[in-house]
Amino acid sequence: xxxxxxxxxxxxxxxxxxxxxxxxxxxxxxxxxxxxxxxxxxxxxxxxxxxxxxxxxxxx
Length: 60
Hints:
The protein has strands at residues 24-28, 35-39, 47-49, 56-58. It is 0% helix and 27% strand. The protein is mainly β. It is built from no helices and four strands. The strands form two sheets. Strands 1-2 form a two-stranded antiparallel sheet. A two-stranded antiparallel ribbon has the order 3-4. The protein has a domain at 24-58. It starts with 23 loop residues before the first strand and ends with a strand.
């Protein structure tokens, strides 16, 4: 005999997840030539310090 399903039982749904988007900016130092990355970097900020050598520079 085929197995009967309980009419009250619902099929299990997979767990839900959330997704978010991030903009990643890559910077290259004009002095030491090393690069670094910042997620969701503010676009209005124009002066940055290189985390490797500390040089302050304008990002265009």
